[in-house]
Amino acid sequence: MGHLANAQVEGVVLDYESNTPLVGAIVRSGKEYTATQPNGTFLINVQVGDSLEIKYLGYRTYHSIIKDRHVRVTLRTKSEVLDAVGVVALSVSEEEAKRIRSSITPVTVITSKELLTKAGNLNEILARQAGIQIRQTGGLGSVARINIRGLEGKRVQLFVNGNPLNTPDGSLGINDIPIQVIERIEVYKGSVPAWLGGDGLGSAVNIVVRDREVSYVDVNLVRQSFNTSRAGLILKKSFDKRGIEAGLGVFNTYSDNDYEMSVPDQENLKVVRDHDRFHSLLIGGGVKFSKLWFDEVEFEGAFMKTEKQIQGITRNIQKAESQGETLVGIMNLKKTGLLGGRLSMLYSLIRGKINVALIDTSSYSYNWDGTRTLSNYGKGELGIGPNMSDTEQSELRHRLNLNYSIDNTSSLNFNNTIRSSDFDPRDDLANEFAGKNLFNYPGRLFNTVSGLTLEKENKRKNFLLSAAVKYYFNHTEGYNTNIYVQGSPERINTNTHNLGYLVGLRYNFSEYLLAKAVHERAVRLPNNSELFGDGVLITPSIKLQPEVAYNYTAGLVYDRFFQGYRRVQAEVNGFYMNVDNLIQLAGNGLSVGYVNYAKAYILGADLELKSDLTPWLYSGLNLTYQRIVDNNEFIPGTKGVDNPTYKEDIPNIPQMFANLNVELHKDNLLIKRSRSRLIYDLAFTQEYDYGFALSVYDKFVIPSFLTHTVSVEQSFKKDKYTVTFEANNLTDQLVINNYNQPLPGRTFRLKLRCLFLGRQTHHDNHNR
């Protein structure tokens, strides 16, 4: 046996299905070996970083690198092929999630285990996390903005596999990414790692797409209230001997969004929405080669088509609608083992083309009581005239990431992104109505963001220091077009240069408890709509400066296993942000445009607790408190006029909210090779104002709400077939989370999933 008295790594080995200890499993690392005790535990004289092999008769062999002094391994029987797809992905995902959480940055990681069986959409899943709100203006397909620690919308950067997801018109959002394809979601709060390209004011969401190494077919069908349906099909084929993998996915979403609502500001008037239809079709495919000089060469393509009827809330929009088409091609390259194994490289090249059309030609405006009046301007419901636009936008992006290991305790990471965007708006009907060319002027945007990060650990690996610097360059070209300009508009070019930085540390008090703190100077570059306006009501602001935030955050993280099955996770963070140069829409009585003048500071804290209370009971709780305060001493745009809202809380942003999750799960409850789950989710948001209350007569209140969601999930034949039923907002609470715009009420969902697996094509090197 190994030298147990000097053991440096302890662990437990359990059966995956029952969580019962496996007695006598052989644990080996190099020349050291031992066997598990009656309670499934073992001690072995090895170091973190050594290899580990665990064998047990009738079970798949476990191979891994030791990354922690406490190891928990669950083994699956050889007859179960599911681990080739489901369990392998989950084990790798959980292991990667733990590594990400141990970085200097406060981060929430949502793994595929938490995603795949959900009947709801991605926005709802994100909204149940600490520090996160999803601010929606209506039903499925309406505008939805992610709010993280008081910053929302354009100020929260979105990524897919580290590549920014900032489509110029916002036509592709995070909720358009099918849950089926997601391996995990990383939500960075308070600072954004420099290895993530792009800009942002201290918060980011990175979606990592699943990469399964076997042939399989995955079918998802969802049917829910308000004539809503979602369907997804994934086909994957692996040719192991040739090192080739090919896949295809088709995803279709449709909704009438015909829910009943109380009309804002019109007492005792309820209506059923009848002009809110949404339809999207996403088709994607790819092929990957793994036996070339590069470790991986991948080519991907995607096409997305959307049709949206404009969802009016404060007004009854009946005719206006938009249509969009997006075509994207991607090349990904991966290479490790360069420079004697010290250097690894990731490279992405993305080419995209987006066409967006807005149709608004109605001769009438419509009231909620069913009556109609002539349009104020003769044509159009939305602006000051008719629109039949066709805007073409093209994108070319590149991302290069290089990671160099200086030694066993130090690494250097370089990340560079380049974005070149051209857009060509066309609206001859609007120009004819205006009597001049207002819309048909092209624009161009070019920017690059480079980040360099140095990380240094001590020899004991319990202290990490990280420092990063980021450089931002932004070039814009456009025209000063608005209805008040006489003659030919002026062509304007502008360049901006900015520096950002990040410094942080992590200290491990033990293998279970760590502390982290980080300070960042974050920068957000203005986007197309802010720079170029809309050609009519919103004038161009080509000389806009980037937004800047000074962010401070610190927290504690606890993560420990007890009794083999019981895991307790706890995290608490405090944060402070001082934000300057905020871009807001302002007017002078004749026109409106975006300007840099707002200032604010944000302070708060969030708490998250998770625990496996028993082998069959799990519970999680999170709580967030935040204040967003107006920091303008004088009214912006004036010379020394006192600001009446100075030091007042900025409205329309919730200050306190919480989520509770309880899950009961049991294997083989109904029949053998089945799994049953009962899930309860509670969400609470405290009352807050959607406008400044400058007197006792001002009442701009969004009421508090408490919602209950219950899900029942039943799988058969080792997760080959899964049925999920969900009742969201069970008590039909009035939910408003953006100004005074009510959201859909009680919603029922039924989800069917079928997973058909091919043979395993790679080594059985993960079973956890």
UniProtKB/TrEMBL annotation:
Residues 101-202 form the TonB-dependent receptor plug domain. Keywords: Cell outer membrane, Membrane, Plasmid, Signal, Transmembrane, Transmembrane beta strand, Transport. One of its GO terms (cellular component) is cell outer membrane. It is found in: Cell outer membrane. It holds the Pfam family Plug. Its main location: membrane. Gene3D superfamilies: TonB-dependent receptor, beta-barrel domain, TonB-dependent receptor, plug domain. GO terms for molecular function: siderophore uptake transmembrane transporter activity. GO terms for biological process: siderophore transmembrane transport. It is a multi-pass membrane protein. Belongs to the TonB-dependent receptor family. This is Cell envelope biogenesis protein TonB.
